[in-house]
Amino acid sequence: AQSVTQLGSHVSVSEGALVLLRCNYSSSVPPYLFWYVQYPNQGLQLLLKYTSAATLVKGINGFEAEFKKSETSFHLTKPSAHMSDAAEYFCAVSDPVYSGGGADGLTFGKGTHLIIQP
Amino acid sequence: DAGVTQSPTHLIKTRGQQVTLRCSPISGHKSVSWYQQVLGQGPQFIFQYYEKEERGRGNFPDRFSARQFPNYSSELNVNALLLGDSALYLCASSRLRAQFFNEQYFGPGTRLTVT
After folding, report:
1. Beta strand spans in A31-72 (E)
2. Checking CA distances to A30, which of A37, A50, A56, B112 falls within 20 to 30 Å?
3. Which residues of chain A are within 8 Å of residue B105 when distances are taken between CB atoms?
4. CB nearest A103 (choices: B58, B108, B109)
């Protein structure tokens, strides 16, 4: 079974500071990994995804994440936080093995609420 | 292009009632998935439908059911509502079935409150 752990339900950074949101996964096989962002009263928007190509993945809005197999991690970073980055961030994992009759859904972490201090 | 649309936006029901939520995928997308997001938690996978057939099911009771229509829109039905069913229900569409390499596009969700 696959699972995702996001360390820190709330992260607060100052505008212009580095953003680091942590995600660790558990999967029986090398997984596909995703980061989504959710703004208030909206659905989820994909920031970036890892699909076994380059370990450093660049996404939208200046975010990037690095897949580290030895640490089973996929942390999200942004060099300089902007007020518009304030939102809920979710890490998700998907087992690439096509099971046919099994669930093909994403498994999400509980989310990290990013607060940007002016 | 229009994104994923869901209706209604908000819904209030009483325990024991039944509810139907609707989702229209992005044009050209054949796969629709449903997720439940309880306040303060990440979304949980309920169903995936592809080409009008159920292709995946999460760990939800039989009170939850869904279907997909020939135009690829979808309905999620929940019977005998419980207080614990109060949540944001998200619909996501993708072009193909395999969601791990196809980007899923999420709708804004339907906020269901059970009293």
Report:
1. 32-38, 44-50, 56-58, 64-68
2. A37
3. 46
4. B58
Q: Which residues of A sit within 8 Å Cβ distance of B?
A: 4, 32, 36, 41-46, 49, 51, 90, 92, 94-96, 98, 102-111
Task: Note the pLDDT tens digit of each residue in A14-27.
Answer: 999 999 999 999 87
Cβ contact B98–A107 (<8 Å): no
Residue B29 exposure: Cα atoms within 13 Å on the Cβ side: 29
pLDDT digits (tens, 9 = 90+) for B70-99: 999 999 999 999 999 999 999 999 887 665
What SS3 state is found at A74? strand
Predicted confidence (pLDDT) per residue in A104-116, tens digit = 678 899 999 999 9
Which residues lie closer than 8 Å to A6 by C-beta, 6 or more apart? A21, A22, A23, A89, A90, A91, A109, A110, A111, A112
Give chain A positions within 8 Å (CB) of B40.
110-111
Quote the pLDDT of residue A101. 40
CA pseudo-torsion sign A55, A56, A58, A64: positive
- Collect the ranges in chain B with pLDDT lower than 50: none
